[in-house]
Each structure stands twice: as C-alpha cells, then as structure tokens.
Design a protein that fits this description.
By secondary structure, this protein is mainly β. The protein has no helices and twelve strands. It is elongated, with a radius of gyration of 20 Å.
Amino acid sequence: MKNYTITVNGNVYDVTVEETGAGSVSAPVAAPKAAPAVKAAPKAAAPSTAAGSVKVEAPMPGKILKTVASAGQAVKKGEVLVVLEAMKMENEIVAPQDGTVASINVAVGDSVEAGAVLATLN
C-alpha cells in the first residue's frame, strides 16, 4: 500500500492506493482534510483608496513575476502592466484601453487564480 496526498480544486485528500496482484489498482478516497491556506484574493502591493472602473483580470492561474506599471501611471492600450508566469511561460498582461492605473492589486511572488483582479484603470 502507498499513501499519497492529492489536491483537487483546492481540496486536499489523503489517499491510500493498494496494489493487487491482477495489475489493477484500487484507490479509495479518504475524507478531505483541511486544505492549506490558499491565496484566493491577491493582496494589494500599493494600497489605493480608489479602485478604477476598468478591471484587468488574470486570464489563467499563475505567479506574478514582475509588476511593470504603478498606481498613477498613464498607460496606452497594449502597454504591459504585469508579467504573469503560467505553465513555465511568461505572459504579459496588458492594458485593455488607454487610461491611468488606479491600482496594482498584486505583488511579485503572489499566486493568483484565473479571474483575479490584477490591476484597475480609470
């Protein structure tokens, strides 16, 4: 018998796998245990009192490698705001329109989920 810890959709399971002589493997699922703390909402790197009206969201889960823009900076459509690493690739998250950065809601090293608000623009 072998013991494994498996995480599925944020839920952590302890699983014991028993090897049978017929070459098949049965894997009874144990009751879920408390999942380790997962960052669901990114923390603010530079706290801002006013959130912008345009939200820039993460297109996929990943880790923040670099924040290029800062709050108060004027940006043009297509300018890089944040660099997100996902599946060992660097993805540049760009401004969807011209505006001013109201807030950057992530810091370097943060793990984010798909749909998390990375920045806001005015």
